[in-house]
């Protein structure tokens, strides 16, 4: 059984895993695990739950207690009992007794107040069906509202070179001060950031003889102390990602990345209430 402190610096993403050709995918998942990656985040929304169903095979092969399994509550919570109902579906499909952490995927997936969702999660912790509690894609106001009824251990949100909104609104610093581990999705914006060939990345890539993606991951992990979720079922790409842990950059170079801004993304106004605008979970997908 893994604790929060045992989580590897790079998490295993599961978006777009090919469940129809899973015999190929499981080989690279096992490779990731053998190299130390042990944080697994699961989403029932992906391919109508088929990814979760296939991931049972991977969990069985490497051993349930050797993984830190996070699951997401997603749509839609209409009453408090839906929280446990959704959790039980994960437990049944994976044939496990507990999850390491649980979080609501996004606040607009709940028709009831978030405080009610998390008071129910507290009961699941008391009943030993959940060990840690997370939140995802919430605002500072929503986070503090949830904290009135529940201790929070993890925060999953967007963070990359171009999308720094959670830094701008103070949540990353807040997490550091309150012992909340920030985990980011789309740290590389699915390779779209590197394809833009920003001058700062090109220079740092040349200076350290690393790829642009390695520069980004190194900065996120070593400078920002954030755990990135990276999905890859290509062994060479996994090796590349892991190599990002094996070098240090100079302070002034980290500062270059800290100071970098993208006006395109900075100008996007987030629709926190999901009334028809750009929601936080879709921020990274707005531009190629």
Spell out the key features of this protein.
single chain, 288 residues, alpha/beta, eight-stranded parallel β-sheet, 8 strands, 14% strand, globular
Please describe what this structure looks like:
- The protein is an alpha/beta fold and 288 residues long.
- It has a single domain (4-285), classed as TIM Barrel.
- The chain is 42% helix and 14% strand.
- The chain has 13 helices and eight strands.
- It has helices at 22-34, 50-62, 81-94, 114-126, 140-147, 165-168, 171-177, 192-195, 199-208, 212-223, 235-243, 251-259, 263-266; strands at 11-12, 39-42, 68-73, 99-104, 130-136, 154-158, 181-185, 227-230.
- Strands 1-8-7-6-5-4-3-2 form an eight-stranded parallel β-sheet.
- Strand 2 (39-42), helix 2 and strand 3 (68-73) form a beta-alpha-beta unit.
- Helix 1 packs across helix 2 and helix 9 crosses helix 10.
- The longest helix is centred in the N-terminal third of the chain and has 14 residues, at 81-94.
- The chain is globular and about 55 Å long.
- The model has no long low-confidence stretch (mean pLDDT 96).
């Amino acid at each position: 059984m893994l604790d929060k402190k045992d989580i590897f610096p790079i998490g295993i993403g599961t978006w777009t895993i090919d469940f129809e050709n899973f015999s190929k995918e499981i080989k690279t998942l096992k490779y990731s695990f053998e190299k130390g990656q042990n944080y697994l985040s699961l989403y029932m929304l992906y391919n109508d739950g088929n990814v979760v169903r296939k991931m049972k095979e991977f969990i069985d092969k490497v051993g349930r207690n050797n993984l830190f399994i996070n699951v997401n509550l997603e749509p839609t919570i209409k009453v408090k009992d839906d929280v446990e109902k959704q959790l039980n579906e994960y437990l049944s499909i994976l044939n496990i007794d507990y999850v390491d952490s649980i979080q609501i995927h996004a606040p607009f997936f709940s028709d009831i107040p978030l405080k009610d969702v998390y008071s129910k999660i507290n009961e699941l912790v008391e009943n030993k069906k959940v060990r840690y509690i997370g939140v995802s894609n919430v605002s500072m106001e929503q986070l503090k509202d949830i904290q009135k009824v529940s201790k929070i251990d993890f925060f999953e949100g967007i963070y990359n070179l171009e999308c720094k909104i959670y830094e701008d609104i103070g949540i990353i610093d807040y997490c550091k001060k309150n012992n909340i581990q920030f985990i980011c999705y789309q740290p590389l914006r699915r390779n779209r950031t590197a394809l833009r060939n920003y001058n700062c990345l090109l220079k740092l890539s040349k200076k350290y003889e690393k790829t642009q993606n390695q520069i980004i991951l190194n900065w996120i992990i070593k400078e920002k102390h954030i755990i990135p979720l990276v999905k890859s079922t290509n062994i060479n790409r996994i090796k590349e990602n892991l190599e990002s842990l094996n070098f240090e950059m100079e302070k002034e170079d980290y500062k270059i990345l800290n100071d970098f801004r993208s006006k395109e993304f900075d100008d996007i106004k987030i629709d926190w209430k999901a009334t028809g605008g750009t929601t936080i979970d879709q921020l990274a997908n707005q531009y190629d």
